[in-house]
């Protein structure tokens, strides 16, 4: 109460209250005796509710040392006693971000991982995030795994999208050690926040929960944060931390809160006999440096909406990792996850449904289209998923958007695998089943003639049939995509190929000096020409086809370019003399002859 009266007096510029805080006597004949010191420590001991939010008294400002003018320097964070940069990612502490919808969980996730990966859009009446997104966070010298979850609504109807996202969030709580409970400080503590807090105590009783008051960048004055902190204590998770995921405010305070918790967790791991370093993974990385085909594989699952992409990802992972359902356009974020197959690391990316860009997309739908195209560029192998049931009902196997996906993947030099899903729906009609299996490879070869032998896999993601066939075909395509051939082997092959090719005239036959591979991923070859005659488009197609047949690298894009070797200019014999040349000029008369040397 006394602190509130003093602040009110200062705002009204009353000299009496200011004199009390500055310990100066009043300008009157009867001066008051000096009061005891009311520094920051004594005020905080009397009024602990005002601590931790950047408030200071006039006495603190008067006794504080004067800072030099100029650009303010940031207060450096304390260094952790544990080196988190040397810890394997699987052993790092896991933090899950929870809260009601539209409180800034995805924005804080992007700040933690230091890139804009999760979709962020202001939709109070809708939910942008629907799946669990995972990444490695960096906060100062701390490293930890962070999970971005969907907004929780405890009153969601059973079987609805919100109820399914809440169930998925509850499932991933089992592999989390810490939770950051976000609330919107501008809206105050809502009834839904209290319900989410009760839900956390019910489902995550063994998880250490930290309350973060987000969106506090403009509310650090007039005691608003102090009042909000008092409300946040009603959640029962201790003192809250005021942050701003958008501007980075409060990250130092959040670091100081998380650092001792993470250090205790890592010391417990080391005491239990787990090493912080992972020598096995380092040895594997060093062993695979020379062989590019053993490096981690980036696989993007693309296709039109509601063809079974998310179901395929869950089938490959053998767990319910992403949200699935009969609703079209259910996936919005491109979800990236990691798993092991045959001692190989595979990064799977489930993209949103690929739609034709009409310019009418608004909100999260427009962001999903852009994000899907970006993930297509980053992938090594692209798995194009088709709907077998729609193929059986229509006259063509691929419509316009799917043809665009396939052609763009080939033009970007990516490996392509076509997966025909939902074949379990055609099992009862055997003639139609056989017709689809026969028609799809032929039509793919027709619409994409520049690449022959594109692999096609028929499967049922819902039943799990064809899962191993899909992964084996993906790895086989990836190994071809990473193939490297020696120059000596290529030149021996070139002599045989040039001899069996029918040339119209030997005089017009191009002369290939040598043939070499300059890069892999995709395989790129260069033919060095020594004559004036260049390889025609027909000749390049012949060499490309021969490479695919003789070295069994069909189904991937191959690039063949040609370069001319410039002729060496004849070097004059006297061009080597770099010194001055001496000429002798003769001058004669009738009696004598005189030689005068001249320098030119």
UniProtKB/TrEMBL annotation:
<keyword id="KW-0690">Ribosome biogenesis</keyword>
<feature type="domain" description="G">
    <location>
        <begin position="94"/>
        <end position="215"/>
    </location>
</feature>
<feature type="domain" description="GTPase Der C-terminal KH-domain-like">
    <location>
        <begin position="484"/>
        <end position="563"/>
    </location>
</feature>
<dbReference type="GO" id="GO:0042254">
    <property type="term" value="P:ribosome biogenesis"/>
</dbReference>
<comment type="similarity">
    <text>Belongs to the TRAFAC class TrmE-Era-EngA-EngB-Septin-like GTPase superfamily. EngA (Der) GTPase family.</text>
</comment>
<dbReference type="InterPro" id="IPR015946">
    <property type="entry name" value="KH_dom-like_a/b"/>
</dbReference>
<dbReference type="InterPro" id="IPR006073">
    <property type="entry name" value="GTP-bd"/>
</dbReference>
<dbReference type="InterPro" id="IPR032859">
    <property type="entry name" value="KH_dom-like"/>
</dbReference>
<keyword id="KW-0547">Nucleotide-binding</keyword>
<dbReference type="InterPro" id="IPR016484">
    <property type="entry name" value="GTPase_Der"/>
</dbReference>
<keyword id="KW-0677">Repeat</keyword>
<feature type="region of interest" description="Disordered">
    <location>
        <begin position="273"/>
        <end position="292"/>
    </location>
</feature>
<dbReference type="GO" id="GO:0005525">
    <property type="term" value="F:GTP binding"/>
</dbReference>
<protein>
    <recommendedName>
        <fullName>GTPase Der</fullName>
    </recommendedName>
</protein>
<keyword id="KW-0342">GTP-binding</keyword>
<dbReference type="InterPro" id="IPR005225">
    <property type="entry name" value="Small_GTP-bd"/>
</dbReference>
<dbReference type="Pfam" id="PF14714">
    <property type="entry name" value="KH_dom-like"/>
</dbReference>
<dbReference type="Pfam" id="PF01926">
    <property type="entry name" value="MMR_HSR1"/>
</dbReference>
<dbReference type="InterPro" id="IPR027417">
    <property type="entry name" value="P-loop_NTPase"/>
</dbReference>
<feature type="domain" description="G">
    <location>
        <begin position="299"/>
        <end position="422"/>
    </location>
</feature>
């Amino acid at each position: 109460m006394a602190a509130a009266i003093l602040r009110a007096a200062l705002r009204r510029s009353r000299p009496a209250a200011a004199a009390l805080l500055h310990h100066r006597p009043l300008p009157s004949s009867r001066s008051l005796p000096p009061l005891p010191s009311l520094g920051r420590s004594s005020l905080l001991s009397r009024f602990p509710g005002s601590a931790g939010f950047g408030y200071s008294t006039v006495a603190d400002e008067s006794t504080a040392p004067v800072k030099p003018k100029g650009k303010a320097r940031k207060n450096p964070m304390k260094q952790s006693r544990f080196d988190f940069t040397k810890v394997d990612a699987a052993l790092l502490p896991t933090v899950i971000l929870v809260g009601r919808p539209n409180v800034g969980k995805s924005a804080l996730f992007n700040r933690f991982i230091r890139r804009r990966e999760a979709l962020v859009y202001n939709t109070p009446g809708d939910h942008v995030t629907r799946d669990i997104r995972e990444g490695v966070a960096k906060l100062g010298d701390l490293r930890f795994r962070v999970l971005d979850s969907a907004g929780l609504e405890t009153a969601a109807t059973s079987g609805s999208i919100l109820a399914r996202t809440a169930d998925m969030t509850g499932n991933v709580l089992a592999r989390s050690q810490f939770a950051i409970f976000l609330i919107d400080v501008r809206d105050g503590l809502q009834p839904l926040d209290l319900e989410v807090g009760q839900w956390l105590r019910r489902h995550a009783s063994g998880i250490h929960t930290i309350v973060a008051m987000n969106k506090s960048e403009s509310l650090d004055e007039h005691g608003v944060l102090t009042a909000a902190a008092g409300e946040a204590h009603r959640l029962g998770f201790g003192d809250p931390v005021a942050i701003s995921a958008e501007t980075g405010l409060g990250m130092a305070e959040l670091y100081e809160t998380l650092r001792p918790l993470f250090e205790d967790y890592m010391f417990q791991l080391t005491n239990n006999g787990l090493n912080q370093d992972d020598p096995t993974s380092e040895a594997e990385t060093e062993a695979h440096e020379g062989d590019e085909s053993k490096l981690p594989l980036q696989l993007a699952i693309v296709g039109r909406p509601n063809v079974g992409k998310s179901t395929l990802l869950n089938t490959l992972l053998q767990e319910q990792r992403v949200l699935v359902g009969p609703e079209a356009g259910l996936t919005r974020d491109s979800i990236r996850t990691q798993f092991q197959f045959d001692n190989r690391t595979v990064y799977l990316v489930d993209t949103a449904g690929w739609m034709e860009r009409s310019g009418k997309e608004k909100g999260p739908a427009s962001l999903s289209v852009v994000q899907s195209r970006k993930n297509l560029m980053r992938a090594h192998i692209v798995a194009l998923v088709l709907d077998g049931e729609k193929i059986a009902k229509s006259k063509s196997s691929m419509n316009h958007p799917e043809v665009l996906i396939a052609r763009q993947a080939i033009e970007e030099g990516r490996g392509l695998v076509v997966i025909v899903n939902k074949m379990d729906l055609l099992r009862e009609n055997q003639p139609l089943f056989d017709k689809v299996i026969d028609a799809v490879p032929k039509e793919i070869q027709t619409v994409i003639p520049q690449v022959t032998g594109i692999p096609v896999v028929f499967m049922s993601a819902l039943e799990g049939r064809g899962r191993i066939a899909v992964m084996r075909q993906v790895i086989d395509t990836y190994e071809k995509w990473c193939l490297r051939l020696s120059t000596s082997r290529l030149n021996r092959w070139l002599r045989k190929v040039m001899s069996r090719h029918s040339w119209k005239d030997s005089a017009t036959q191009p002369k290939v000096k040598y043939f070499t591979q300059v890069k892999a991923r995709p395989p790129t070859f260069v033919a060095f020409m020594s004559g004036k005659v260049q390889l025609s488009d027909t000749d390049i197609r012949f060499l490309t086809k021969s490479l695919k047949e003789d070295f069994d690298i069909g189904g991937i894009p191959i690039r063949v370019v040609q370069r001319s070797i410039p002729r060496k200019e004849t070097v004059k014999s006297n061009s080597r003399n770099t010194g001055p040349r001496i000429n002798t000029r003769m001058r004669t008369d009738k009696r004598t002859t005189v030689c005068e040397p001249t320098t030119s």
